[in-house]
Structures are given as structure tokens and as C-alpha cells.
Amino acid sequence: MKIFNLFPLTVMKDKIIVEDKERNLLVSEIFKMKEQKYKNENSNFAWTGDTNGYEFLFSNNLFKNLSNKISNVIINYLKTLEINTDSLDIYYQRSWATFTESEQSINFHTHSQSNISFAYYLLKPPGSGGIIFKSNELQNEIAKNIFTTSKIEKSLINKANAYNSDKSMFDLEQDSIIIFPSKTPHATAPNKSGKTRISISGDITIMLKNSNGFEHLMPNFKSWTKF
Ligand SMILES: [Fe+2]
Q: What is the C-alpha separation between 176 and 128, in angstroms, rounded?
């Protein structure tokens, strides 16, 4: 007997080592941003730079070295999907920091305006909250909602595994980066460490260098007409 798992969701994990000196510099820069624009004091939800006026982090030169390293990982992700990166122009469309204090988390959401998204863990104490991915279209869902948590509680499902789960959590260590399709719903688990967790997130847009003969992929914006 052999099991074939078809049509996967590909999530890539890699490691980017940042020297302590650089890490301290970036962390203090993010602290400054958060202090200047913190609308949600005592909120259950993490502070995210994208909705607080800091959605172009990589245009700040301090983040240049890190963004260059992240670019290499993104290229590897595209190559894993056998996408010919020579045919593409690839852009960081947005990039921002997330700042999560004790018990805070981020609800499920997607980044539907982009193609690929990532999270890099600049400051990630143990227990400060993993990233949870969710599927809205389970390939194996042979009956509607048969794999929900309550079906495990009622012993209809013996145990959750990769074949029957609609959620999967990665609780990665500091300096890890995780890459995934932007359309994938994701959330973060509450920070139970009592310490601050800081991640750098970003959205990537890909477009054809030359759209001649292509119907559906994004043509290069340099050929668009503004009105
Ligand atoms: Fe996100």
C-alpha cells in the first residue's frame, strides 16, 4: 500500500543569521516606530507597522542587509515551485514590523493583494507564539466540516494528522524565516513568553518582464498607462 499526497501547500522555512549588533539596531528602530504610532494600548492584538504608517520598512537603509538576505530565500522559494525567475521582475510591495507583547496575537487574515508573503523572526523568545496556517479548501474533506475540532472531541475523528487537519502551526526559533503564498489564511498564537516578540513581514509581487504571449500573469507596470 502507498499513500500519495497530491496538490500540496508549500511553506518554506530557512534561517537568516543576524549579528547581535545589527539585531539591536533594528529592534530599537522598531521600538521607536511603535512608540510613535501606538493606537492600541492594552490591546489583545499585536502592533503591526503596515496599518500604523510603517508599511515600507525596506525603504529604510538600516534594513537593506536583511532585505537582501530575504530576497535570496524568496528566489529559492520560486525556484522550488519551478518558476523561472529570469522571466520575472520581483518587488517587495510592502514590508513592516509586527510587535507582539504578552498575551497578544494576530487573527486569521490573508494578504490578498500580493503573491508571496514571509515572516522573519527578529526577536522570538521561546513560547512567544507560532504562526498558524489554515486551509479553507481541504482536499480530503469527504463530508462538510468532518475534520473540525468538535469531531475529534466527539471521537468521530481519532486524532488530528496531516491528512485531516484544517490548521497547522509552526513555532519557529529566532532568526527563522517562513515563506508562503499570500492567499493562505494565517494567524499567530498568543505570546505566552512574557517577553516582546518582533517579526518582520513582507508582501512580494511578481510581474512578467515581457508579457508578450501571456494572458493571465501581471504585465510589467512600466508598460501600464496611468490616467
Ligand atoms: Fe500576515
A: 14
